[in-house]
Structures are given as C-alpha cells and as structure tokens.
Amino acid sequence: MNSSGKRRIIIFGILIILCLVWIFYIVTPPDGTAEKAFIIKENSDFKTISKHLEEKEFIKSPILFSLYASVTGMKSKVVPGEHTIKQGKGYREILQDLSTLENETEAMEVIIPEGLTVLEIVDRLNKSGIVDRNQFLEAAKSWNTLTEEQQEQLGINKKVKKTNIKFAVEGLLFPDTYYFEKNMKAGDVIHQMTERMVEETKELTIHTDQTPYEMITLASIIEKEALLNEEKRRIAGVFVNRLEEGKKLQSCSTVQYLLEKPKATLKRRDLKIQSPYNTYINKGLPPGPISSPDLPSLKAAADPEVHDYFYFVAKQDGTWSHFFSKTYKEHRKYTQLSGNY
C-alpha cells in the first residue's frame, strides 16, 4: 500500500474516533441532579417530547434520543401524564420513567419568588405540608446540609464557615418553580434548591475579585435594592465602587434583614443596630447573603456596570427607578426632593 493510501486510512480512522467521541459527549446526560416535573400531553408527537426534554436539560440531542427510542422499541411505550425525572439519567432510564405513571408520586408545584429569606421560604414550604418548619430551620443553620461539591462550587471556604451568619443556606436557595412531595426531609429540599443555584451560577464569569459566595452575597443585596432588572448592573457598580474605595455600603436592605418585620422607613436607631450585617456601621459586605437572588441579580453582581456613581436613591414617582449620583452633594439634592427618602 502506498503512502497516499495509508494517509487516507489514518485520516478515516481519526474521523471515526472524533465521531465516536462526539457521540459519547452528546449521549452523556447534562450536568445536574435536580428533579423536575415533565408533562406529556395527549397526542404529543415524539419529536416535540424530545425537544422539550432538551429544553428542560435532561438530554443534549433530541435527534439521537429519538433514534435510540426507535431502535430500542421504547418510543411507542411513552404514556401521557405528569412525570418526575431526575437530571443526570441516561436515555434508557428516562424512557423507562416516561413509559409508566405507576412510580409517580403526587408532586406539588411550589413557586419560590426572588428576594425571599430562609424564614419566608420555610413558611411557604411548611404551609404546603412539604417540610417541618423546625427541622428545616435546623438543617438551614448547618453547612453539613450542603455537599462538599456544592460548597466548593459556591465558594464556601473555611473563612466563610467561621463567620457569624444567621443561616448557612441563606441566599443559596434559588428562587424558581419546584415540584415537591408532602412531608419531605428538610435536607432533600435544601439540596434540590441549592443544586439549582449551582446550576444557574456555574456558567457565570465573575469580572471582579469576588469569590462565588461573595458574588451571591452582593447579588442578594442588589435583589432587595433594585426593582428594575435594567438597573441592577448599575446598582452593582455603585456597591463595587464603594467597596473599592473603602466606603460603607450603607444598604438599608441589610438593616431590614435584622428586623422581625420590614419597615416602610428605617429610623436612626435602626441604623445603629449592632450586627455584622449592618452595612451602616461596618465596612465591606455582610458575612453572608440576605435573600435569595434571581439570575439577573447574580449576573449583575458578577459583571457590574463600570461608572463613577457612588450613591443612588429611589425616585418614588411610581417608576421604581433611581437617581444615581457621583457626589454626596448631588445625592443630598435628590434625597431632599419631595417624596424621596
């Protein structure tokens, strides 16, 4: 065989190997361990089912999944109804889950809005009969409720664990729609919600010198301060500017976190509450998050807007927007306008 023929064989062999590697990657389940509800409607075609599985991040390739289902004969066994599927499963396991409703439990839809604290989240879960309130709060105080992998991915190091925080999982329970059963173990619920936070943040690139946990802490403050998503990066930039200049954040939201019930307007005595969370008397970030931030807040904290603003104050004109100032003199002008605080 001449050298030209050998070269063609080598190239052909390399192409086959690359093709096999690509197929192996495609059929490997996406990362994640969260359980999600998956509904198959009556008369749904398999192409639509496969596409929805991809959108829900159960599979990577609808085409290969459909081909596998056809070859194995499992395509015709899929039954309509509400299924509960766990991420990380292979094609065969997913098709087995979709082919029966016998193993399904009655999962309740629970919506956890952005900006809630651990106490507010547990009240919602307890009211629905999903978890015992006391057990959940006890589990929420311990770092051991999180897996080592979750702690590593969320930037929870020895320094963080030594800080004086209210709840270890505060800010780590991602706000989203969940499907839970009645009387679940607190640790299982926390794991699922924290895993969702891991999934949502793992693709974020932090453009500051913050750790992932510090970024989430900043995002939790942004969540409570900003009502408009389009202002979140600008507000993040204000806080980063103040941190870099060694100024106190002076965020009212960190003080509200210390109160039993939020106040419409904080009093001077509130701003003097002795706590590491009070950013009116302490420099830097609070020891941990003060709420569960949504994805726009997390993105803002990871990539703040670059500007020269050091202050902001709500306009109180019904637009939910803010005045931004570079100097304290300008800031005072805005705070003295009628209707502002």
Question: What does it look like?
Answer:
Its main location: membrane. Belongs to the transglycosylase MltG family. The protein is mainly alpha-helical and 341 residues long. The protein folds into three domains: 29-104, Dna Ligase, domain 1 (2-Layer Sandwich); 109-201, no CATH class; 212-335, no CATH class. It is 43% helix and 8% strand. It has helices at 3-27, 46-55, 62-72, 91-98, 118-127, 133-140, 148-153, 158-161, 186-201, 212-225, 232-244, 252-256, 295-302, 328-335, and strands spanning 35-40, 81-86, 108-111, 177-180, 311-314, 322-325. The chain has a two-stranded antiparallel sheet. Strand 5 (311-314) and strand 6 form a beta hairpin. It is globular and about 80 Å long. The chain starts with a helix and ends in a 6-residue tail after the last helix.
Low-confidence stretches: none
Q: What oligomeric state do the depicted chains represent?
A: single chain
Q: Give a short account of the largest sheet.
A: 2 strands, antiparallel
Query: Number of helical runs?
Result: 14
**Which H/E pattern describes the elements?**
HEHHEHEHHHHEHHHHHEEH
**Terminal Cα span:** 86 Å
Gyration radius over CA: 25 Å
User: How many structurally independent domains?
Assistant: 3
Please state the overall shape, judged from the principal axes of the Cα atoms: globular
- Counting DSSP E segments of at least 2 residues, the number of strands comes to 6
Strand content: 5-15%
Share of helical residues: 40-55%
SS-derived structural category: mainly alpha
Spatial strand sequence of the major β-sheet: 1-2
Nearest-integer average pLDDT: 88
Transmembrane segments: 9-27
Subcellular location: Cell membrane
Membrane topology: Single-pass membrane protein
EC number: 4.2.2.29
